[in-house]
Amino acid sequence: MGRKWNNIKEKKASKDANTSRIYAKFGRELYVAAKQGEPDPELNQTLKMVVERAKTYNVPRAIIDRAIEKAKGGAEENYDELRYEGFGPNGSMVIVDALTNNVNRTASEVRAAFGKNGGNMGVSGSVAYMFDATAVFGLEDKTADEVLELLMEADIEVRDILDEEETVIVYAEPDQFHAVQEALKNAGITEFSVAELTMLAQNDISLDADAQAQFEKMIDALDDLEDVQQVYHNVDLGE
User: Fold this and answer.
1) Where is the protein found, in the record's own terms (predicted)?
2) Residue 49 belongs to a domain with what CATH number?
3) Residue ranges making up the domain that contains 42
4) What total of structural domains would you count in the chain?
5) Alpha-carbon distance 191 to 199, whole Å?
């Protein structure tokens, strides 16, 4: 169903090449989540979700705790949550989520990342309608049938459960994130290769070699921006 999540470890290994950037992005997201509610993951579901996602990217516990303690300490850094939508080559679509303390700077940088790499920004709603907000979990050492059975026993319905190579991928409604997570944990599953909310393209497209190279350059440019937290797209990169 849409984006393939196999080879997730290889994708993460590539992203983790610049760990300081990954840690900085999570530090900001954790701080914002902790400031918007209780600075305790057990009392703040949004913060708990960010903590769980950070673990799948191997963010050290010390960095997670430092961001939460910063929020507890009364630091007053203010960030706006922004979403940009745009287009790349040959009908490719991109959604960019950002946290920023300077809206004008971020808008300019995102626009430049699109424009310098064969893309262009669109208006709000021009792309998002082709994506579905989705909770995604990846786990190993279980089969899809086993995971389906334990979720049925917990009376939890999900969109789909697939075996993708050595990983079982669970797709669920976004408001079911915590219910699915708790059901899996209650069944003894505590380690996830994926545990996050994403924007899943309703239909993926393929690009020829030249267009894909240009598209990947654009995605890298967007992902490298300090204020950008997540980049979603509808291109099958063949990973």
Assistant:
1) Cytoplasm
2) 1.10.10.200
3) 8-72
4) 3
5) 22
